[in-house]
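Hello forum,

I keep getting stuck at the same step: I have a sequence, I want structure tokens, and every attempt I make locally crashes halfway through. Rather than fight my setup again tonight, could one of you with a working pipeline run this one for me? It's a single chain of 154 residues.
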Amino acid sequence: MPASEWEFLSVDYDLNNYIINDFKSEVDYKFKLVAIFDGVWMESDTKIVTIAISEVNKLYQNYPNPFNPSGAGRSPSTTIEYLINKTGDATIRIYNIRGKLIREYHKYHLEPGKYSYIWDGKDNHNRKITSGVYIYSLNFNKKNIKVRKMVLNK
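Reply #2:
Ran it on my machine without issues. Output:
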């Protein structure tokens, strides 16, 4: 690979881990550690790594949970994260405890990777909802993946 295609990352000397969130699945990546100590250029051998995203689609527990969209000093929203393993369409649906659809969020033509949706505690008509237990689900390519629950406290 020509040097012009390399991405150079600068990190602190004491950093033990470096996380890159934009990996593509089944692609070869070349890594080389380079450092300058006391004016001397040092580098490691090039390592080739193939990234494989999980074969499983995942829906993670929201955070914070419980959350309070209107309380002073409280979190005004909650984050719902999910992982998909192939290109496709994802839908997050939020229901009340009786099964009524409260909020729906669509993302189309997603590449494999980890994504998040930040919910502000409002319904599809932008109205604040009441305190209670809510159920959320991930639907990927028209297939239900996982269902979880969360609590909204006011």
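The first strand starts at residue 27 and ends at 31. If your local run keeps crashing, start a new thread with the error log.
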